[in-house]
Amino acid sequence: MMPFFPPEPYERPVHTVCFSGHRPAKLPQGKLLQMIQSLLFEEIRQAVQQGATVFYTGLAQGIDLWAADYVLRLRKDHPQIRLIGVKPFAGCGDPLRGDDRYHFACVVHAADAIIALQPAFTRDCYRKRNQYMVDHSDTIIAVVDSMRSGTGQAIRMAQSADLQTRIISVTEIRDRLQNSYD
Prior knowledge:
Strand order of the largest sheet: 4-3-2-1-5-6
Helix content: 40-55%
Distance between the termini: 51 Å
Radius of gyration: 16 Å
CATH architecture: 3-Layer(aba) Sandwich
Order of helices and strands: EHEHEHEHEHEH
Structural class: alpha/beta
CATH topology: Rossmann fold
Strand content: 15-25%
Largest sheet: 6 strands, parallel
Oligomer: single chain
Number of strands: 6
Number of domains: 1
C-alpha cells in the first residue's frame, strides 16, 4: 500500500483513538512487559466496546505496533473498526531489518489507510505526527514510563486538546508488582 499525503482520509467518525508509547528498548522485559501488553489490549478492547471505530497508530516499534496488532485482532470480530497508520515521513520504516521490518510491513499492509505527513525526515516530524494524531482523535491510549519523552509530549498535547486520556503508567505497574512480592 503506497502512502498518501493529507488531506483527511475520512470524515470525523463518532469515536477515534490514537496510541502513544515507548519503543522496546525503553520498556521493561519479562512479567512486567506482559502485564503492560495485557493492559494495553484491555484498554483497546474497552474502547471498541465503548464505540471507538477508528484507531491511529504512529507505526513506531513497541507500543504503536503492538496496539496496531491488537486492533487488527479485534477487527476480526468487529469489522466496523479501522486502523490508520500515520508515518511521520514517507521513508519511515525503511531502515528496519529482519523481524522488525516484517512486523512493520504486515501492519502497513493490513491497515485501512497509511498517511505519510511529509516526504522526508525533519527534526520535528515525530512531533508533527503526534500532533496530527491528537488533532484527529477523541481519546489517547498511552503507555509511559518517563514524561520526558515523545510519549510524554503526546500526552501533554492530548491533555491540552481535552482528549480523554487513558494512561498505562509503567512506574505504577512496577511499584504494584514489587509490592505484591514484598
